[in-house]
Design goal:
Elements lengths: L1 H7 L2 E4 L9 H15 L4 E6 L11 H12 L5 E4 L4 H13 L3 E4 L3 H6 L23 H8 L4 E4 L6 E6 L3 E6 H4 L3 E4 L7 H11 L4 E5 L6 H10 L6 E5 L2 E2 L15 H6 L4 H11 L11 H4 L13 E2 L2 H7 L2
Parallel strand pairs: 1-2, 2-3, 9-10, 11-12
Antiparallel strand pairs: 4-5, 5-8, 6-7
This protein binds glutamic acid (GLU).
Glutamic acid (GLU) binds next to loops.
């Protein structure tokens, strides 16, 4: 019986990227992810997504863990992606053997120039320039002199639909929207997209709670799952924290790093209280712990608009 119950329990994850210090936006998403799993007796996995070498900052991984512990987060297991490269290599080999991936030497600029329509945000459509162009990674590398990326072949008419636990129904014509999308800029497949898919399955993740900037990247991840015969977790994409101008949180909006609040003597409970209030689970100004929030977790109460930090916030928490 114990075993059956354990299997029915959700498994969630916190997946920070050590590209900078942990800030309010990351914490809001992690709070929702943690509460979602723990409020149903579930497990939480900590996964450090440190494969983005040029962008990863020394000390950021340790800093994020320290800040999360200070806020009261806990987890049952932790993993570091840079130590798991053989798994990504194995997955890449499977995709290669199925003829589903190819090396590409196009730069971002090349892909931008090839856009037939204006693109929104980060998502570029790839016209397939390098499809069938090189026999191997080595050949592509020798040709261009820079690190190629692996792309996943998307056949015309490939549509993916998902029912997101928060964002609702979402559908994408992956071929029309993304084309052959990048899997990893690494010979062995150790890059965000492939690693996230492999790890979600390897770690038994049943629900992925993350920022809604990744919603449009989810159909691509689902295609990889299908190609590797991996299960699809439940997805729950939640709104980001933005500045008053509606733009993604950045330094110019003020210092929203958790380390800065710690240095100012602000309590973990007031940070969590503020974030919980923004989700409809606490009164403004409440000081509350994660454990205290467990019985209040309720996705239905959460607003769908991004959380915009206004003047009032900075008056209370400082800039
Ligand atoms: N590491 C990613 C981030 O910090 C999250 C990726 C994911 O949740 O799949 O934005």
């Amino acid at each position: 019986m114990e075993e059956i119950l354990a299997k029915a329990r959700p498994v969630g994850r916190l997946a920070p990227s050590p590209t900078g210090a942990l800030h309010l936006g990351n914490v809001r998403t992690f709070m929702i992810a943690w509460l979602s799993a723990r409020s149903r007796g579930g497990r939480v996995i900590m996964r450090m997504e440190d494969l983005d070498h040029p962008k990863d900052k020394p000390g950021a991984a340790e800093g994020a863990i320290d800040d999360l512990r200070w806020l009261g987060f806990d987890w049952d297991e932790d993993f570091v992606q840079s130590q798991r490269k053989p798994l990504y290599r194995d997955a890449l080999e499977v995709l290669k053997s199925k003829g589903l991936v190819y090396p590409c030497v196009c730069s971002r600029r090349d892909v931008e120039n090839a856009q037939s329509a204006p693109h929104e945000g980060e998502q570029l459509h790839y016209p397939g320039t390098c499809r069938g162009r090189f026999a191997s990674w080595g050949e592509a590398f020798a040709y261009s002199g820079r690190t190629p990326c692996w792309r996943f072949r998307v056949e015309q008419g490939t549509r993916i639909a998902l029912d997101d636990a928060f964002a609702g129904h979402f559908e994408q014509d992956v071929a029309a929207k993304l084309g052959d999308f990048p899997l990893a800029r690494d010979e062995g497949g150790a890059g965000y997209t492939l690693a996230a898919v492999v790890d979600d399955a390897a770690m038994g993740i049943t629900e992925v709670v993350r920022g809604d900037d990744l919603l449009a990247a989810t159909p691509a991840q689902m295609l990889i799952q299908r190609a590797l015969d991996l299960p699809t977790p439940t997805y729950c994409h939640v709104p980001l924290v933005v500045g008053q101008d509606g733009r993604r949180l950045a330094k110019r909006h003020g210092d929203t790093r958790i380390a800065a609040y710690r240095a100012k003597g602000i309590s973990p409970g007031s940070i969590l209280g503020f974030l919980a209030a923004s989700c409809g689970w606490a009164e403004p100004g409440e000081d509350i712990s994660l454990a205290g929030l467990l019985p209040r977790f309720n996705l239905a109460a959460m607003p769908h608009a991004p959380l915009a930090l206004g003047e009032k916030f900075f008056e209370v928490f400082g800039r």
